[in-house]
Amino acid sequence: MHDFSNTDLYELTMAAGYFHNRVDGIATFELSIRSMPENRSYFVFSGLHAALDLIRFGRFPSDAIEHLRSHPAFVHVEPAFFDYLAQFRFTGTLRAVPEGTVVFAQEPIVQVTAPVIEAQLLETYLLASIHIEVLVATKASRIADAASADGVHRHVIDFGSRRAHGADAAVCAARAACIGGCAGTSNLKAGAVYGLNTFGTMAHSWVSVFNCEEDAFRRYHELFPDTAVLLLDTYDTLAAIDAMDTIGRDVKAVRLDSGDLDLLSRTVRKKLDAKGFVQTKIFASGDLDEYSISKLVSHGAPIDGFGVGTRLVTSADCPFVPVVYKLVQMDDKNGLHMKCKISQGKASYPGKKQVYRCMNRSGVYTGDFICLADEPEPSRSFPLLETYVEQGNVCMPYASVSSAAQRAAVQKRCFSPELFRLDSPQRYPVLPSKRLEGEYRQLADSFKTPPSR
């Protein structure tokens, strides 16, 4: 899993070029989200664990090196480069915002300073790992907010493993979902690896295997008396409640997975209560997202929890964000050089930076400033980027999922609530410092290109 060869070919062609030309300066790259999509007003940072694990355990496997050696593009590359890859270790510094931090477009959320080959070779892995987890953590945050929008706490469970973009993605998505606000996941491996709460109900196939629903429910409840959640909609939802008559009245929950969930939940609640299942909860699933859940909650549907799958792990309404990894500074034998991109729509600020989050006297966050790293800290603010790796050694471990989830929950309470509205959310101000803006404009002018951001 922790394999530096899991990358784009051009990272290795550039690395070979640096090696051949003895380009060994110290580079600083910064990972950020270029712009804010129309249907997002914030992001929840997740995915740092993958970067730190790659740095700690990552290697170039010998078979990958041999494959590269035989690649037609590398026929003229000197043998010493392949020897270098065999001994490759990251020796630089990595700074990042802690997982669970609420972040915004243009802010550096990961910063890598290292010999240029090393910094370059992290690019693809960093972007891929952080991209999926930021997407899912943010989507989970929005869904969890919608589920409890009326002040009543309702659990949201990640049910997305079978709809994720691959089995490995399902594990990463489960982790990110719990950082964003889910109470647990259906994914067993994610639960074991990351200490997440795991949940499962039953499938329609279980009910179909038996000749009648009564047998299916009774036998399942006999084996799992404390946790059984009975699935009601294989045939007729209301008739399925009659099939529960031979079971004691201590059924934990029933699940609705189709139909008009608002109407069904009301009818099911009445029938459950009439039959004495007053303590039995109603759990709903079936192509749910923050928008459909918000409607159910606002209409007062008697649903106690939600399982969300496809639209969570794919972040269906916003399936990608423009995460980028840009060179911002190069320090070599000729001195320190600021670097930036000035092309239309893809401009980036130069220099190694820090992000400061400002607050008012009541502790409410009022805006972020992106500053050069050596600028003084603005008043009533705190820095977001922290050092996780120094001289190639992980000096601060990534947070547990529970602590990252707690960070996200606490931080969200410090912003204006209008930031988290689903419709027409408030935009949070993120501004460059005057000095940073000046550095950008000076560089843009030096290329004789009108600065355009």
Explain what the structure shows.
- It is a single chain.
- It is built from 16 helices and 19 strands.
- With 453 residues, the protein is α/β, with parallel strands linked by helices.
- It has a seven-stranded antiparallel sheet with strand order 13-12-1-5-3-17-18. The chain has a six-stranded parallel sheet with strand order 7-6-11-10-9-8.
- The radius of gyration is 26 Å and the shape is globular.
- The model has no long low-confidence stretch (mean pLDDT 95).
Kindly summarize this structure in a few lines.
The protein is an alpha/beta fold. It has helices spanning 9-20, 48-57, 62-69, 79-86, 116-121, 123-147, 167-180, 188-194, 204-209, 213-223, 237-242, 261-274, 290-298, 310-313, 401-412, 434-446; strands at 26-33, 43-44, 93-96, 102-103, 110-115, 155-158, 184-185, 229-231, 253-256, 281-284, 305-308, 323-332, 335-338, 353-359, 365-372, 381-383, 386-390, 393-394, 430-432.
Which features characterize this protein?
seven-stranded antiparallel β-sheet, single chain, 453 residues, six-stranded parallel β-sheet, alpha/beta
